[in-house]
Amino acid sequence: SDHSLDYPLSPQDIDWAQYYPELAAGTGKVPEFADVGCGFGGLLIALAPLFPDTLLLGLEIRVQVSQYVQDRINALRVAATAESSSTDKPPHSFQNVSIVRANAMKFLPNYFGKHSLSALFFLFPDPHFKSRKHKARIISPTLLAEYAYVLRPGGIVYTITDVKDLHEWMKKHLTEFPLFEPVDEETLRSEGKGPIIDAVYHSTEEGRKVESNKGEKWLACFRRIQVSRS
Ligand code: SAM
């Protein structure tokens, strides 16, 4: 249960410098990429060097798993610091990646302000197969309103799963929601988001497991649309 977790009352109450000491202290920078249910952090670690000026945040509900990711990031930061003193070309410092232990289904707007995100990832989410459990799915009409709130117009929701039924479910709900429009992989690649797509397919621990089991993966991406006010 998440009852014992402390949550920030609002994004304004968060001191991001505690998560990104070198990049957020005194800069007002906030996370722009959020990996919901980040698991062991493979996507975050893969993307961090590709987007050195962007703050990436993982949200993970499991205590030990989130602690593991925290330790992993700390170790990468320490290794980079050690290495940078011995080389001319400094390695990526992993100062732009962090994690919180959080129930993303309940508290996403406590972490992210309106239109603050440019990318939101739902990679191999728990499928909750039984229909009475569908309300536990991370993509649902109520939650989509929150995702549309935290994503800026033009921002992208990336989903991928090896469960065909869940893929259809996510696609259906996102397509039906008025603030999202489907965007295909080719279009995203033509916009320079190929490295993100590649990481979505191949860099998460769950994605790698699916690969070694020769399973199929279904990708579905959506753009947060701009609503014109008249
Ligand atoms: N995205 C990772 C990957 O592709 O390797 C992990 C996939 S794993 C099947 C799903 C993850 O979502 C688990 O680590 C689980 O603990 C986490 N999770 C489930 N519900 C969550 C919630 N409400 N908030 C945050 N994390 C959640």
UniProtKB/TrEMBL annotation:
Pathway(s) annotated for this protein in UniProt: tRNA modification; N(7)-methylguanine-tRNA biosynthesis
Residues engaged in binding S-adenosyl-L-methionine: 37, 60-61, 103-104, 123, 204-206
One annotated GO molecular function: tRNA binding
Residue positions of the active site: 126
Keyword Metal-binding: no
Enzyme class (EC, first level): transferase
The protein's assembly and partners: Forms a complex with TRM82.
Similarity section: Belongs to the class I-like SAM-binding methyltransferase superfamily. TrmB family.
Protein's UniProt name: tRNA (guanine-N(7)-)-methyltransferase
Native source species: Coprinopsis marcescibilis
